[in-house]
């Protein structure tokens, strides 16, 4: 019998990576991220920063980090954001340090962010997985925004006006999932993330896992 043996799977680990979930406001991005967090022990959500006011029930540090415009600008000047953008009349950004630390630890970091920010992340992390969530129609998107009653009519109108331009960017993403039937769409997103986690390119010997990722 040959003494040659294959490396045991336990001798390997997986590199962490980013999963960007983008699409127009009201398309269901939060539902997708919540599902992944509830079904994957290796997933963690990145908390974004924003200059918009908290909605009812939102908590600073859990839903967003809330800043006034001057405070946000100071963070930008200090280079503390992985990406930032002006969206729907407010500023949004992703804190860099948390993302880098979690990716280095081998976790799947979920970014529920706007299209501008998602494309910035794709430029800076070559292996980020970018998923574009598409609504069944603009009428359905309008109905969802109005039904959730989180924004005043002027804000809803602004978000709907921005939607066509956001939809036009879908071709720059890796995957497109139509959120017409939510359970089916959640299944598709879970399958995408599982397949990406299993990529051979993310497999490395445990003892050689570094604390930095190639940019």
CATH superfamily: P-loop containing nucleotide triphosphate hydrolases
Can you tell me the CATH class?
Alpha Beta
Characterize the largest beta sheet: strand count, sense, and whether it forms a barrel: 5 strands, parallel
CATH topology: Rossmann fold
Report helical residue fraction. 25-40%
- Calculate the terminal CA-CA distance, rounded to whole Å: 45 Å
Low-confidence stretches: 211-215
Please tell me the total number of domains: 1
Task: Describe the 3D structure.
Helix 5 (138-148) runs antiparallel to helix 6. The strands form three sheets. This protein has a five-stranded parallel β-sheet, sandwiched between helices. The protein has a four-stranded mixed β-sheet with strand order 5-4-7-6. It is α/β, with parallel strands linked by helices and 215 residues long. The longest helix is centred in the C-terminal third of the chain and has 16 residues, at 182-197. It is built from seven helices and eleven strands. The model is unreliable at 211-215 (pLDDT under 50).
Secondary structure layout plus pairing:
Blueprint (H helix, E strand, L loop, with lengths): L11 E3 L2 E6 L6 H11 L3 E3 L3 E2 L14 E2 L2 H9 L3 E7 L2 E6 H9 L3 E5 L2 H10 L4 E6 L3 H11 L4 H15 L7 E4 L3 H16 L5 E3 L10
Parallel strand pairs: 2-8, 2-9, 3-8, 4-5, 9-10
Antiparallel strand pairs: 1-11, 4-7, 6-7
Name the features.
single chain, 38% helix, Rossmann fold, 215 residues, 4-stranded mixed β-sheet, alpha/beta
Structure at a glance:
By secondary structure, the protein is an alpha/beta fold. It has helices at 29-39, 69-77, 96-104, 115-124, 138-148, 153-167, 182-197; strands at 12-14, 17-22, 43-45, 49-50, 65-66, 81-87, 90-95, 108-112, 129-134, 175-178, 203-205. Mean pLDDT is 88; it is low at 211-215.
